[in-house]
């Protein structure tokens, strides 16, 4: 039996990158500032990294600069062996064996080299530094994540998050929108941060008998949203936050503006349209068509209601504070004899 190898480039996924949607209309004056935020060069984005940066931001920039690469690799029965891919598969098997010491080495080797399994490999300086081994079940609508690891000295740099985001985009492209995995107690935290939960969305009949059951491990699932460009998601959210912050600052600057008070009332004007109050439009106030048509009826109604209330108050006041009643009250309390 020939042992052959194949590879799929994840970079091609980025060609299908969806345009980020903004959630509010942007005034023309802001467009230049927003362009700067949206199209910062990778170099200037580097300076942008801060304590508040998303976990995967550094990894995303490293990928753009070509420092790291992601490739889906696997053994194949119908392709010629490729030395580079073979080396990567051996490297993956080593990373998994070191990082998952409780898994038998032979078992890891068998699955990594099994043609039905694929592995998303993370390559830095030509060497494998991490990966996710998985098996796709297209007829069942899910993929099982079998092993996931990043080499010790490269952990907590965002590679694990970026790997998972690439795997999500790869699956969206292949129309599989559910991940399942058996996570041990140490891995549950990581998977939760990648959007996995113990609540499994797909029916049991879809995966029972297909997925390997690991004793003492917890089954976790993640439902993918095909609208989300996962590898760009955190940066889109960050940029949207910056845009909203700028819009709020601009609005606040307008609101802080002090307009001269209205003097028309001194000249005997009794009523003015709300929209003629200086500054009211800048606050975002708009009169809806519905309100416009309702207005005369409402003000008539308001007038008659107020008039009747005032009349009742007048009657009540004149009754309860009639001078006779007042004198009666005083004579009984202050001068009882
Ligand atoms: N439990 C809880 N949280 C974990 C975690 C764990 N075991 N491993 C990582 N995290 C957290 C990180 O602190 C980080 O959180 P933050 O964004 O709030 O700071 C987040 O998960 C992702 O960090 P990231 O840097 O993207 O991941 P990584 O490159 O360190 O890779 C693993 C994460 C799990 C792949 C890596 O730690 C590893 O290889 N662990 C050993 C093997 C393993 O347990 N694999 C999982 C089961 S197959």
From TrEMBL:
Domain N-acetyltransferase, chain residue ranges per copy: 77-225
Record GO terms (molecular function): histone H3 acetyltransferase activity
Transmembrane stretches, start-end: none
Top-level enzyme category: transferase
EC number: 2.3.1.48
Predominant subcellular localization, coarse grouping: nucleus
InterPro entries to which the protein is assigned, alphabetical: Acyl_CoA_acyltransferase, GCN5, GNAT_dom
Cellular component GO terms, alphabetical: ATAC complex; nucleus
GO BP terms in the entry: positive regulation of transcription by RNA polymerase II
Localization terms from the record: Nucleus
Swiss-Prot/TrEMBL keywords: Acyltransferase, Bromodomain, Nucleus, Transcription, Transcription regulation, Transferase
A Pfam match: Acetyltransf_1
Highest taxon listed in the record's lineage: Eukaryota
Protein family (similarity comment): Belongs to the acetyltransferase family. GCN5 subfamily.
Protein name: histone acetyltransferase
Organism annotation: Phyllostomus discolor (pale spear-nosed bat)
Source species taxonomy: Eukaryota, Metazoa, Chordata, Craniata, Vertebrata
